[in-house]
Amino acid sequence: MKKQISSLLLAMALILSLTAPAHAYSMQTEASSPVAMSLSHAAYLDGSGTLWMWGSNTTGELGAGNRESSSVPVRVMDGVTAVSLGNGVSAALKTDKSLWMWGSNYHGQLGTKGSGDVNIGGGNNADHASKHYIHTTPVKVMDDVASVQAGSYYTAAIKTDGSLWMWGDNQYGHIGNGAQGDRTDRYDYIYQTEPVKIMEQVSCVTFNEDAHTVAAVRTDGSLWMWGKNVHSELGNNGEGDKFYEFEEIDDIEVYQTTPIKVLDNVASVSLGANHSAAVKTDGSLWMWGSNFYGQLGSGSTTDSGVPIKVLDGVAAVDLGWSRTAALKTDGSLWTWGWNESGRLGNGSTVDAHLPVKIMDGVAAIGGYQDQAAALKTDGSLWTWGWNYYGQLGNGSTENSAVPVKVLDQVSAVSGHQGSMLALKTDGSLWAWGWNYYGQLGSGSTENSTVPVQIRLDAPAQDAASLQNASPFADVSRDAYYYEPVLWAVEKQITNGVTADAFAPGAVCTRGEIITFLWRAMGRPEPEPAPSPFSDVIATNFYYKPVLWAAEQDMASGSLFSPKSPCTRAETVSFLWRSAGSPEASAVTGFTDVGPSASCAQAVSWAVSNNIVTGTSDVTFSPGDTCTRGQIVTLLWRYLGK
């Protein structure tokens, strides 16, 4: 799932400090938020300075000394004053101003010269081939740090003397040191694996990993930018000092690998995926970059390679996927740009090329790519836009083109993709939305369309108590497929795709499912005979399983299509035929599996034997593909439970 990155949000005041990550958002009325979220893990910094974390731990991002994910908070360290998260990466500042980081270090984003305590090399995966070191426990990176922004690929830190340091992936020149690095990989990608000083006298910095752009405001109010410049998002008419030509599509990408000055008298800056914005000290809002959907607010759809003035009296600005939201000093909220999914909150889904007023009494704004949120002065939290996972928190999964009230007495909010996390004034933590990795901290991996309270006194909350009961980092103990995976491995039905990963979400092919089933049935030896299928030959790993399936009348025809994804209908049909095709009553209740469907008896048999359920009360979704986690679960229910 690759829904990438949007922008930060600011509070009522213009805060001259390191801003929130560009791929998440954090709303509060202070410079540093006590809550943070990435795509797959979350963090809470309590009032005593204790850092708690939960969610995915595949690359050690929970800092627990192992790779066991947790759907309940884990106590990580004490004496913490600030926390920042990237996907698979965590960073914390301690009271003595020391910076500590942990998690993935493949791109050098931890600043420890690419080192780690575990090597999870990716084998044939080109992106993570050979050495991929991770730190499963916090490691000290540097001292005298005032603020940090951790990213999925690179990191930025401002020291107490005002100097800006960056490190990590430098392919697009976003480290700001002239596209230099101390490591390259086999594709000549450039990595700066230890901190390098970029500039002095910096008051705040932010970056957007989706756009690969970086912006820094210096203490004199000057705005400096660098990185990718495809949409003129650097505000210098699309110029750069490095170019990359794509011959196959006759295109050239432009990069600026060292900081360039864009504006003076800047108080804050926000970056979108293809446009940029700055609020000046006089409250004027200036914007530049792509304007395809009218996101610059100029009244047209003409791009601008240089900053143009849009509004006066602005306190903060937030950029999402080709959309813009501005909070004015009078507390009014205004939005414009792309309005798919109702992300502008103006009651329609029609794009707006000029600012439209949405609501009053707003203290802070923020959002993700296609959803948005506002924290009002009375402490109420309002959300709108895309709602596929229930991330609006209003009890449904329907998009909303108008703001909906979620909670009262809210003091801080953070969110990422389909998940949200809120801290109330009474100190209670609440989360809702997408929960595949346990990032809601609720003790399960079930999504929630309404806020659920996170308890710090939940079982297994101490890092020392989290031991690797599973042989795979991506199979947590609370996953529905946890026991089936252990059973499948024990019975030698299948193993992981690597020594540490099972890949439960990977799609299973017809060749794989028939092989798994054949092994689960005791590996019966088929009669020696030529393959009846032209796409199955003796050197294939699924050769014997397919021949056996043909003998059992589980497959026929001239093609088996072993590399095609296996559907739910095909899977239950294989299981039903392996059981001898027992008579089953007609399917009732599923509107997408009629009595005459070829899989009707198989579906009825599988449902009545508690091997599978429908995808809803009235649908079976016979054409949906099956994942490795689902397949071993069905086999376990059929043969092992």
Written overview of the protein:
The strands form eight sheets. The protein has a five-stranded antiparallel β-sheet, with no helix packed on it. The chain contains six helices and 36 strands. By secondary structure, the protein is mainly beta. 10% of the residues lie in helices and 35% in strands.
- How would a textbook summarize the main sheet? 5 strands, antiparallel
> Into which percentage range does the β-strand content fall?
25-35%
Q: What would the principal axes of the Cα set say about the shape?
A: globular
User: How far from one another are the termini?
Assistant: 31 Å
Oligomer: single chain
Strand order of the largest sheet: 1-33-34-35-36
Overall average residue pLDDT:
87
Low-confidence parts: 1-24, 27-31, 123-129, 460-468
Q: Measured on Cα atoms, how large is the radius of gyration?
A: 26 Å
Q: Pairing-aware structural class of the strands and helices?
A: mainly beta
Count of helix runs:
6
Q: What is the number of strand segments?
A: 36
Helix content: under 10%
